[in-house]
Design a protein that fits this description.
This protein is α+β, with helices and mostly antiparallel strands. The protein has helices spanning 22-29, 93-100, 110-123, 131-137, 149-159, 178-183, 208-217, 231-235, 271-281, 284-290, 295-300, 303-308, 317-323, 419-425, 432-445, 456-474, 481-484; strands at 2-6, 9-13, 48-54, 60-66, 79-81, 191-194, 201-204, 222-224, 243-246, 256-259, 262-266, 326-330, 336-339, 344-346, 349-350, 357-364, 370-377, 388-397, 400-409, 416-417. The strands form five sheets. It has a five-stranded mixed β-sheet with strand order 2-1-5-3-4. The chain has a five-stranded antiparallel β-sheet with strand order 10-11-16-12-13. A four-stranded mixed β-sheet has the order 6-7-9-8, covered by helices on one side. It is an enzyme of class 1 (oxidoreductase).
Length: 488
């Protein structure tokens, strides 16, 4: 059985299809049709809802997510708010501002936009967020007919207004403790959900011991965390997944803490959860993570999922390879560690053995004279997949490259180091001549493919240009923001 709050009311489901998304359940079972399906892939934001998750301090953390690629069973112990929660007076400032600023035309995308801005309002109730925060909140919401200026204007207007609903309001949990009390009555133990005996099954353990037992008992089961990629097999490929084991409720896999000169990030930690501690150590991650999917995706997607997916254009592996990060794998024979670069054997092929799972990732902390550059090339600024991603960790001493690790995504069947380019740079001066030699050596490292995102020749040329970009960015006299910016 799973149990959760829906617009202020407890829902209990003892039988449901584990392949069912929140969106499909809302529209077909509950007839709450304000939440729309636009793409069924987490791209357009028309399906945006808000979830509230209890934290260790007894508070509830609210965030916008894509309901089209979030599985219903993941709601256990949480609160779910849909746009219907705001039918009851008083209306939310976001609703009024959208009307007054003419932020809607056809209206199909409007409920998702409202929910994204409501989530932003809930998390910035005591401050006025800058335009950057408003744009970030809307980065996963597409609108074909209105244009974004009136929507952003509505966000500016709404964020400075208070909202004080009565305790009986369906969304009162955004402003008070009612939801905390209601959710405290729900067991936070492990759950199992199935539509019928012998049918598709979903298990959500709450400890490593339980996870080990399930992996041993059901070796063919698929592991799932945020489901931002796995759910596409259901919504796009129309597959039925027979058995899913969720890792998102295992505390040890969600940790993020310093340990012996490394930052340890649990495999089930979401992008938004580890973004700040990682970016404080290596600032180059901050701009890159802001472009990894949308805020809705980052609220659900996990580091372990991005790595285990083994995509050659995944955004996290190249910078982790550049930093010399270590993967911690757990399984029947205990933990083992291996360098991140050794994890990928070929396209969608990894070093995971039967019964194993990614436990955590250990990222080295910066040493003196080390710099990290991360550059993502994509056709859209927000919510797009990389054509090429370059990550360069350099150690410079008096202008000489004493050590370097250069890693790329989108250049081969796996994320990989550019070892010939590294050799060209090692011991050379960090100047135009050194970078030119390293860029020329990339042709010996990679033979990229042409596809819908970029041609092979473009990929090879832009990879070299990113090294040039790092050189310009490292020059303290270069103040041109168009040159040193992290946006491509």
């Amino acid at each position: 059985m799973i149990e959760f709050l829906l617009n202020g009311r407890i829902q209990k489901l003892d039988q449901a299809d584990p392949n069912l998304s929140i969106l499909e359940w809302l529209r077909t079972k509950m007839r709450l049709t304000g939440t729309k399906e636009g793409c069924a892939s987490g791209d357009c934001g028309a399906c945006t809802v808000i979830t509230g998750t209890p934290d260790q301090n007894g508070n509830i953390h609210y965030e916008a997510i894509n309901s089209c690629i979030t599985l219903l069973a993941s709601l256990h112990g949480k609160e779910l708010l849909t746009v219907e929660a705001f039918h009851q007076e008083p209306g939310h400032p976001v609703q009024r501002s959208m009307m007054e600023q003419h932020g809607s035309q056809c209206g199909f995308c409007t409920p998702g936009i409202v929910m994204s801005l409501v989530a932003l309002h809930a998390n910035h109730a005591s401050a006025t967020p800058e335009d950057h925060k408003i744009l970030q909140a809307l980065s996963g919401n597409l609108c074909r007919c209105t244009g974004y200026r009136p929507i952003v204007d509505a966000g500016r207007q709404a964020m400075v207004q208070e909202w004080t609903p009565a305790s009986s309001h369906p969304a009162a949990g955004l402003k008070g403790e009612r939801s905390v009390a209601a959710l405290s009555t729900i067991s936070q133990g492990s759950v199992t959900l199935a539509a019928k005996p012998g049918g598709p099954r979903y298990d959500a353990p709450v400890s490593l011991c339980e996870l080990h037992a399930l992996r041993s008992r059901f070796p063919a089961a698929r592991l799932v965390a945020g489901s931002t990629d796995l759910a596409l097999e259901i919504t796009q490929q129309l597959k039925t997944l027979d058995h899913l084991i969720s890792v998102e409720r295992v505390p040890e896999l969600k940790d993020c803490y310093p340990d012996n000169g490394e930052l340890v990030i649990g495999a089930a930690a979401t992008y938004e959860a580890f973004r700040q501690p990682l970016s404080e150590l290596w600032p180059a991650f901050d701009a890159m993570l802001e472009r990894l999917g949308s805020l809705q995706i980052r609220n659900r997607g996990t580091l372990g999922g991005n790595i285990a997916n083994a995509s050659p254009i995944g955004d996290m592996p190249p910078p982790l390879i550049a930093l010399g990060a270590t993967l911690v794998l757990d399984g029947p024979d205990g933990e083992r560690r291996l360098p991140m670069e050794a994890f990928f054997h070929g396209y969608k092929q990894t070093d995971i053995k039967p019964g194993e799972f990614i436990h955590s990732i250990r990222v080295p902390m910066p040493k003196p004279d080390q710099q990290l550059f991360i550059y993502k090339i994509s056709k859209r600024l927000d919510d797009d997949i990389s054509a090429v991603l370059g990550a360069f960790r350099l150690t410079l001493h008096e202008g000489i490259v004493s050590d370097c690790r250069l890693a790329f995504g989108g250049m081969a069947a796996t994320p990989a180091r550019a070892r010939h380019a590294e050799a060209a740079l090692h011991g050379a001066r960090w100047d135009q001549a050194g970078v030119t030699a390293a860029a020329a050596a990339l042709a010996s490292d990679f033979t990229p493919l042409s596809d819908a995102r970029a041609s092979a020749s473009y990929r090879l040329q832009v990879a070299g240009n990113l090294l040039q970009r790092a050189l310009l960015a490292s020059d303290p006299l270069n103040r041109d923001p168009l040159t040193v910016t992290d946006y491509a």
